[in-house]
Amino acid sequence: MHNFKSSLGRGRSFWHIIVQLITVFLVAFLVAILWINLNRNLQQLGIQFGFDFLKQQASFDIGETPIAYKPSDTYSRALWVGLINSLRVAIAGMFLATIVGIFAGIARLSDNWLVRNISVVYVEVFRNTPLLLQLLFWYSAVFLSLPNTENKISFFNIVYLSQNGVQFPWFKLSSEFFALLMGLTCYTGAFIAEIVRGGIQSVPKGQWEAARSLGLKPSLVMRLVIFPQALRVIVPPLTSQYLNLTKNSSLAIAVGYPDIYFVASTTFNQTGRAVEVMFLIMFTYLTLSLTISVVMNFFNRMVMIKER
User: Fold this and answer.
1) What pLDDT is recorded for position 80?
2) Is the CB of residue 176 less than 8 Å from the CB of residue 185?
């Protein structure tokens, strides 16, 4: 009987390997057919696949340039500017959305009726409204309705608001950047709030009671006992929200913010290199997504409960 089970197990393993090999072969065959067909179509159009166009002069201006750039620079330089702009809004958005989500998620469980219901309204409104609509609201209804630069609104002579954006003593944020950032933060923060609420509620009630029996204040109970344990439930879905925020940042084109997708679209319109440009966009977002996943998986292993 034991030999029969062992033989059956080896037989299943063998067929699993065969099925995987066949799958890999079929995928490689399909990719080869697509590649051959692509080259044939490009040859018929008189176009040779390649990235030499990246060395050509871009000849277009970019509204926000965190690094030195001028229209006489190459397309590769322009794409670098767009990538840095995408990273700026994605990193800032993840940071702010996390803060908003944590506070809103904890507020959802507050004993205060007003705080709890304000959080409920925030989550339900922003989570169930299309992100594109929110971006247009922040840009058109909020920033474009502000006074011009000459009549800008001042807060303690430190922060200034105008149609051009938000100005601080040490840097400036354009209205396009800030509208995109606010839209991504409020939209993603609403989803993170629900993740935080679910993670906190997953902690056994005995942990709450044990912490209270030690005489800890409610704020210390949450910060030292409950929230660290909830992280093991929060982090995996939080990774998905970070990935969504990064990919949703491509909607920057709706408010005129020059991210990587915006610059790549302009490059495609001028060069006609649709395949190469689409490949660059796909590779960029794939790399960003894999990087976020690796970092968050590392953090997830850190917060997991270590069993002895």
Assistant:
1) 94
2) no
Nearest to 38 by CA among 286, 279, 303, 290: 279
Helix 274-303 vs helix 227-248: angle between axes, to the nearest 10 degrees?
Answer: 180
Q: How many CB atoms lie within 10 A of CB 246?
A: 23
| DSSP 3-state of 160 | strand
Cα angle: 301, vertex 185, 61; to 5 degrees: 110
How far apart, in Å, are the Cα atoms of 2 and each of 8, 9, 13?
Answer: 10, 11, 17
Regions of the chain with pLDDT less than 50? 4, 8, 307-308
Read off φ and ψ for residue 132, nearest 5 degrees. Answer: -60, -40
Fold held by 54-303:
MetI-like fold (1.10.3720)
Hey, CA dihedral for 63, 68, 72, 73, is it positive or negative? negative
Instruction: Provide CB contacts within 8 A for 292, sequence distance 6+.
Output: 239, 242, 243, 246
Which residues on adjacent β-strands are paired with residue 173?
166
- Cβ(172)–Cβ(59) below 8 Å: no
258 CB-near residues (< 8 Å, 6+ apart) = 62, 63, 64, 81, 82, 85, 252
Per-residue pLDDT reduced to its tens digit, 270-284: 887 888 888 899 999
Question: Encoding tokens for residue 196?
Answer: 């935080």
Tell me the one-letter amino acid at 212: R
Alpha-carbon distances of 38 from 35, 263, 264, rounded to whole Å:
5, 24, 20
The C-alpha angle with vertex 252 and arms to 246 and 254, in degrees rounded to 5, equals 140
- Cβ neighbors of 51 (< 8 A, separation 6 or more) are 276
Could you tell me the two tokens for 301? 């292993």
* 119 vs 109: CA distance, rounded Å: 9
Contacts for 38 with CB less than 8 Å, ≥ 6 apart: 49, 275
Residue 188 near residue 97, CB atoms below 8 Å = yes
Which pLDDT score, from 0 to 100, does residue 64 have? 86
For the chain, which residues make up each domain, given as ranges? 1-49, 54-303
